[in-house]
Amino acid sequence: MTSPPQANGKAHHIAPLDASLLTIQRAETLKPIPEPGTYIFGSIKTDHMLIMTFDPIVGWSAPQIKPYGPLSLDPSSNCFQYCTNVFEGMKAILGPDGTPVLFRPEDNMRRLQSSAARMALPPFDEAALLACIKKLIMTEERWIPAPAGHSLYIRPTLIGTTPSIKVGASKHATLYALVTPVGPYFATATAGVSLLAVNEHVRSWPGGTGGFKLGLNYSPGFMPQQTAAALGYDQILWLIGENKLITEAGAMNFFAVVERDDGGLTIVTPPLDGTILPGIVRDSTLVLLRAHAADTSAKILNLPADKAVYVEERALSVNELAEWAKAGTLLECFGTGTAVLVVAIERIGDVVPDADGKVKKVRNIEMKAGKGLGPVGQAMWDKLLASKEGRDDFRGWAVRCE
Could you tell me the pTM of the whole model? Predict the structure, then answer.
């Protein structure tokens, strides 16, 4: 971290984020652990949280794990006035030997750093923050639920706290992390979720902030989400432009599996063009698919060895999905993300004008695989979960917390 010059021309030392300075203040009374399956996603507050602050003169404070509680912020804080809020989503799962493991956490730290830079928030030492997060997980280890499909969700958050309504970057910041035990994100995940394709309200746009994990990317979707729910859909398939190009499915990355004329499979996902989040599960999915495609006989994925696999990152329109569905070649679609891992997309509702172009109606695009994960989605779920738990770690993605 660079040091700002002083009036005498000498650089002033700015303290870096230093994990060796971490202190732990344990709660005097611990909360009871609720039974898995009795709470909704993200609703439980555990005993402790991690917190540190940044001051432009002195740098980062000593990180602290302390009892979970409210933050004290000035009402004019930059995060309230100008949405300088960035965050990450991570999960801890109990490994085969009972040790908590994280999935590619270094990538989460890099993405948080990238998001912070986009919002002109202060940088931090990624390795130091990860070390502090591991300590928080070990402090809250008893909260990690054991049942399959459950985990301890981790939410590192960085907010601008300069107390001023003047328009500009925040020079002060608070970095904290909370954890919460969670089960499946979607109650209907075993059968699949439904999506309403929308381009009337745009989630992201070229040159915007869709490629970063910012709070302001999510809240504009709350109202359209209510509209979709009123029409009987679980989430929104976000589109952009007259060609109705697909960006994301709710807060997930989107994949379509198409049957080829030669009997092979083509898996298509939109490219990282700045309008979609570079999902870590998305990247892991592509790594696994490409490794399998390079040598189907290696059985990296539980798919037929005689069925060739092709992977495409390219612009993909909802109209293409409709054409494939009509031809009977749209085998399955699925979404990927930290919260869901892999979830089946059961149907997609697309709003189109009728013959005279006046009245709009919804056409349903359905997958040949029907309800639940198809062969490719199920193969991805099995392999990714095995990697996350450290049972069959493909690339050393599972990182132990010790």
Answer: 0.93
Percentages helix, strand, coil for the chain, rounded to the nearest 5? 25, 30, 45
Instruction: Provide the domain limits for residue 326.
Output: 193-387
Enter the DSSP assignment of 102.
E
Q: How far apart are CA 121 and CA 266, in angstroms?
A: 40
Question: What DSSP state is assigned to residue 354?
Answer: -
Whether 133 and 270 share a structural domain: no
What pairs with residue 332 in β-bridges? 257
Handedness of CA 216, 219, 223, 224 (dihedral sign): positive
Instruction: Note the pLDDT tens digit of each residue in 30-76.
Output: 999 999 888 888 899 999 999 999 999 999 999 999 999 999 999 99
Give the orientation angle of helix 105-118 with respect to helix 280-294, to 10 degrees: 130
Report helix, strand or coil for 376.
helix
Same domain (yes/no): 28, 131: yes
Q: Are residues 24 and 152 in the same domain?
A: yes
Query: Helix or strand or coil: residue 293?
Result: helix
Q: How many C-beta neighbours within 10 Å does residue 163 have?
A: 14
- Do 157 and 295 fall within a single domain? no
Examine the domain organization and report whether 227 and 276 are in the same domain.
yes
